[in-house]
Amino acid sequence: MFYKKIISFVVILISTSFAFSNETTFNGKFVQGGIVIGQNKLAKKVFFNEKLLQISKDGFFIFGFGRDHKSSSTLKIIKDNRDDILKYNLNIEKSIYKIEKINGLPEKMVTPGPEFYKKINKDRALIKKSMNEKYIVDEFPLTFIKPTEGRISGIYGSQRILNGVKKNPHGGLDIAAPEGTPIRATAKGKIVLATKGLYYTGNIVIIDHGYDIKSMYIHMKDISIKTGDLVEQGQAIGTVGSTGRSTGPHLHWNIYWNKVRINPKHLLTISK
Predict the structure, then answer these.
(1) Would you say residue 11 has pLDDT above 70?
(2) What are the residues whose beta carbons fall under 8 Å from the beta carbon of 232, sequence distance 6 or more?
(3) Read out DSSP for 116-132?
(4) Angle at 5 between CA 7 and CA 54, to 5 degrees
(5) Contact present, 169 and 149 (Cβ < 8 Å)
(6) Residue 1 binned pLDDT confidence (cut-offs 50, 70, 90)
(7) Residue 188 near residue 143 (C-beta atoms within 8 A)
(8) d(CA 34, CA 93)
């Protein structure tokens, strides 16, 4: 009779980088909205809450936590010897989010009229289809850069109340900048959507970076690439604008892991 060797750890650290047993390293924050890069050179399979993660040839993998992620999760690593399993019980720190009240907006900026519903549903279907695209790459995207320069005018996770009406929490990072300011790809990847004129997002680009990571660029003025293009990190993809539902020139920048919105600032932190 054979018994599997299972070693279990409880991860309660919130630091940006640490290791266990010189086998598995973690870089990132175990916090709501956070994202973590792990590495185990002996890993053959890695599961995060039963989801199978892609592993690079060097043993890198990545996983993240949504805005309201539950307080605990599990990570399971199956090594070369299939009877040798590492199990991590992850404690996820709760994040505190701001409430942003914005008054005096035109009504159409708060609640669109019924004449726009057909277009909105069509736009959402297009974005959903693009988000379902899966770009498989071997090279792991270890570094990510800020896509444009400017003032942070909106933060991840904040609860927005527009003209007294509670709306969905803010899912990304707003960077205010003059119209026409260049926007760069935060990492190399494939353009899965580049289109103009959507009701909410205006002109939008979505890049798939592999490993279930996607970046989204919203309210753009110009778009200089097209769907299907491959781009390098730092490559110009367009310019800052104020298209769609926007109150002024800025870039709304979303980061997704496994279709879950992640706080972009944490992605930049693990890249340093």
Answers:
(1) no
(2) 185, 188
(3) GHHHHHHHHHHHHHHHT
(4) 70
(5) no
(6) very low
(7) no
(8) 9
Q: What is the DSSP string of 34-86?
A: -EEEEE-TTEEEEEETTEEEP--TTSEEEEE--TT--SEEEEEEEESSTTEEE
Q: Note if the pTM is more than 0.85.
A: yes
User: With contact defined as beta carbons under 8 Å apart, do 8 and 87 qualify?
Assistant: yes
Q: How far apart are CA 240 and CA 246, in angstroms?
A: 12
Identify the residue whose tokens are 């650290």. Answer: 13
Residues whose CB is less than 8 angstroms from the CB of residue 116 and which lie 6 or more positions away in sequence, other chains included: 199
The CA-atom distances, in angstroms, between 67 and each of 8, 135, 254 are 26, 25, 13
For a pLDDT cut of 70, what percent of the chain falls above it? 90
- 161 or 34, higher pLDDT: 34
Q: Locate tokens 């899912």: which residue?
A: 171
Q: How many residues does the chain have?
A: 272
Residue 165 is predicted with a pLDDT of 84
Report CA dihedral (152, 37, 29, 134) to the nearest 10 degrees: 60
Residue in the block written with tokens 């277009």: 119
- For 99-269, which CATH class? mainly beta
| CA diameter of the chain | 72
Alpha helices in 63-218 (DSSP H): 107-110, 117-131
Do 174 and 252 meet the contact criterion of CB atoms below 8 Å apart?
yes
